[in-house]
Design a protein that fits this description.
Layout (H helix, E strand, L loop, with lengths): L10 H7 L4 E2 L12 E2 L16 H13 L6 E9 L2 E8 L5 E7 L6 E3 L3 H4 L26 H15 L4 E2 L3 E3 L2 E8 L2 E9 L5 E3 L6 E6 L3
Parallel strand pairs: 2-11
Antiparallel strand pairs: 1-2, 3-4, 3-12, 4-5, 5-6, 7-9, 8-9, 9-10, 10-11
């Protein structure tokens, strides 16, 4: 990881957080300075100092996937970061990513990931009549190939995160999400728009802790 909303809280808050996004210099498909960072003030970790653990986070993510009307969605992976858990929800039939969620480390509360997942997602994002029902549909045409997305990501990393290496992109509807590594260890994520090649750095995760690959 269609036309109806999941009952997951915090969507309004996550969408509002997009308003604090800031512009950063980057290299896009045509060499334009079009990248953005998440600009999440204070991160996304909720109150309290507890940690639900990756087992519970995985259970929560699977519950979100299973609750989607009509089924057909599975959890691809769950990643623990210092600011919370990230999970990728994927379509069984196509293998394409459906959407991305964040799970609070202390409470297990679920929100849609801000940024590309809501603003660039052409099937499950804002304005598509799918997950959000908002006013922004984004572009529905994908001109950037997976190889191009990886190249764009690497050029952005070379300019902004020296010493890191882009992994193979994960395709979502309208964009790609790219993990990147430093010294053989996951160091962060960014997304590449499938039409314009714009880059959006995921600044909200914090430090990598561990990953659980569920093989979806």
């Amino acid at each position: 990881m269609r036309r109806r909303s999941l009952l997951i809280g915090g969507l309004a808050a996550a969408a509002a957080a997009l308003l604090v996004a800031v512009t950063a210099t980057a290299i896009g498909l045509h060499g334009a300075p079009i990248a953005r960072t998440g600009g999440m003030m204070g991160g996304l970790s909720g109150g309290g100092s507890g940690n639900i653990g990756i087992d519970r986070a995985t259970k929560v993510a699977r519950g979100v996937a299973a609750s989607y009307p009509g089924g057909g969605l599975v959890v691809d992976e769950v990643i623990e970061f210092s600011n919370g858990y990230y999970a990728s929800i994927r379509e069984k039939s196509t293998g394409t990513g459906a959407f991305e969620i964040l799970i609070d480390r202390a409470t297990g509360r679920v929100t849609r990931e801000p940024g590309p997942d809501m603003m660039w997602n052409t099937r499950y994002g804002m304005g598509t009549g799918g997950m959000m029902g908002g006013a922004y549909a984004g572009t529905r045409s994908t001109f950037v190939s997976s190889a191009q997305a990886r190249s764009i990501a690497q050029r952005w990393l070379d300019a902004n995160q020296p010493g890191t290496t882009a992994n193979a992109p994960d395709a979502f509807h309208g964009y790609y999400t790219v993990d990147f590594e430093k010294d053989g260890r996951l160091a962060g994520m960014l997304s590449v728009n499938g039409s314009s090649g714009a880059v959006w750095y995921h600044s909200w995760h914090g430090d990598f802790v561990q990953v659980r690959d569920l093989g979806a």
